[in-house]
Amino acid sequence: MTHPTAAQLIEQGLFHHRQGDLRSAMERYTEVLRINPENADALYYIAVAACQDCQFKQGIELARRSLMFKPRQARAYNLIGQALHRQGDTKGALENFDEALACDIDFADAYSNRGNMLSEFGRHAEALSSFDRALALKPNASDWLNRGATLAAMGRVEDAIASYDKAIALDPEFAVPHVNRASTLAEVGRFDEALADVERALTLAPNVPQAHLLRAGVLDKLGRAEEAQASREKAADLEERQKVNAERADRPA
Length: 253
Prior knowledge:
Elements (H helix, E strand, L loop, with lengths): L5 H13 L3 H14 L4 H13 L3 H14 L4 H13 L3 H14 L4 H13 L3 H14 L3 H13 L3 H14 L4 H13 L3 H14 L4 H13 L3 H26 L3
């Protein structure tokens, strides 16, 4: 009987991984490591699975082991950066995104992640450059959204709105660009336009408390106090429900 090779097991694991069947994927990856404990690909994909399961420390350790056996993996540095960010280490995250780009100057995801880190540090001009590079390589709604938020933080209102428009054009069902666009418009006193955007966002995602609070603020500015109060009450109700659901999820089975 012919046994599958390590490469075949990796391919099988990736198939199950893409289907969301992490258990079957992990069986294939760990079988590869039984054959060859130094297989960098298996270590990397197990690291990905660990991070998807919020086991960030384990994911970082596995990704670093993968790098020991196969140096200069942009994807591994990018994964470590994402995991460090989730752990609150933004400085370490940025360093790893830079390492990823040192390995692969055209790695779009690392530019995206680097842009987000730089925005958190308030280094908006550098962040904008990273988002522009990411978008040149791989246009997507999320990067247009984050680019818009960076431009808004720089006070470049019209440019921010144009970026949100690009995000919406790429993904019309994505509610967040509508919320951000509404917030930016409200900040410069364009309340009628802001209201139209936040109401569109709530059509797409009706259970977002922050959107209801933004709507309340805009309605206040438009002199529609009763509607504003109703939006505030809706936001409070949603926040309470989310709190209760989170507490239930944290209880042991």
